[in-house]
Design brief:
Helix 2 (about 220-235) packs across helix 4 (about 260-270). The strands form four sheets. The chain has a five-stranded mixed barrel. By secondary structure, it is of the alpha+beta class. It is elongated and about 90 Å long. It is built from four helices and 18 strands. The chain folds into four domains: about 10-65, OB fold (Dihydrolipoamide Acetyltransferase, E2P); about 75-135, Beta Barrel (OB fold (Dihydrolipoamide Acetyltransferase, E2P)); about 150-215, OB fold (Dihydrolipoamide Acetyltransferase, E2P) (Beta Barrel), CATH 2.40.50; about 220-285, Arc Repressor Mutant, subunit A (Orthogonal Bundle), CATH 1.10.10.10. Helices cover about 15% and strands about 35% of the residues. About 25% of the residues are buried. This is S1 motif domain-containing protein. It holds the Pfam family CvfB_2nd. Belongs to the CvfB family.
Length: about 290
Amino acid sequence: MEKIKPGTIMKLKVSHQAPFGYFLTNGQQEILLHQNEMKQKELMENEEIEVFIYQDGQGRLAATMKLPSITIESFGWGKVEEVHQKLGVFVNIGISKGMLLAKDDLPPLEEVWPQVGDEIYCTLKLGNNGRLFVKLAKEDDFKSIAKKADQSLFNKNITGTIYRTLYAGSSIFTSDGYLGFIHRSERKEEPRIGEKVSGRVIGVKEDGTINVSLLPRKHEAIHSDAEKILAYMETRHGAMPYWDKSHPDDIEARFGMSKGAFKRALGKLMKEGKVYQEEGWTYFKTDK
């Protein structure tokens, strides 16, 4: 007789009814199926049903008729429902009880931990204490489900979920099933695990994976930078002490952009007749 093991889906027989549900058995062990975990109001004695085995809040084996796609034998996407600084993050795998992704299995930097609402690709594992925990998928796990990209994807927009983050960059699994890498030079800030991001394909490698940039295309960046300049000038009644000969460090400190990007955006605004420069200052055209 197969032992009742947490994290698995099993077929068990109804042993007898209790005031708060039914006890199920494999012929040797009995566990509780609470009435809140049932899909129907009544069960028959000796009826065989399929249930997922987990541990309740007291660590006791329990059963639910809600069958998750994530087990110790299968991977799936789980949504983060709670973040606990001292413990880790709790993940909804499709049952009423959240499962813990332990702090020790998360990056040391809490800023890149998954947040509530983020989704992670994961499985379940039994810890040294016999308790169920969430386990993040590794690179090889993603490779087993990923598609190979071809050159037709180059420069295409993509969306995806971050599944690993390192100083060198971030790994992404796209919504279309491709594996990609975002070098740290191709992002403004480090995305967190489980975060959904949008970018574009800047390279397709021979192994079928892609390189991704989260930075806007140059023409998109010019528009965004121009809007940033105009917004700043609005706060200063249409005048600012910056022009195309300002020091790069001053531009970076004020606008968070390179001098080259600043000059391109400023050139766009002057060409459109929205601003003009004079003696180290830039003004709205209507103010001249």
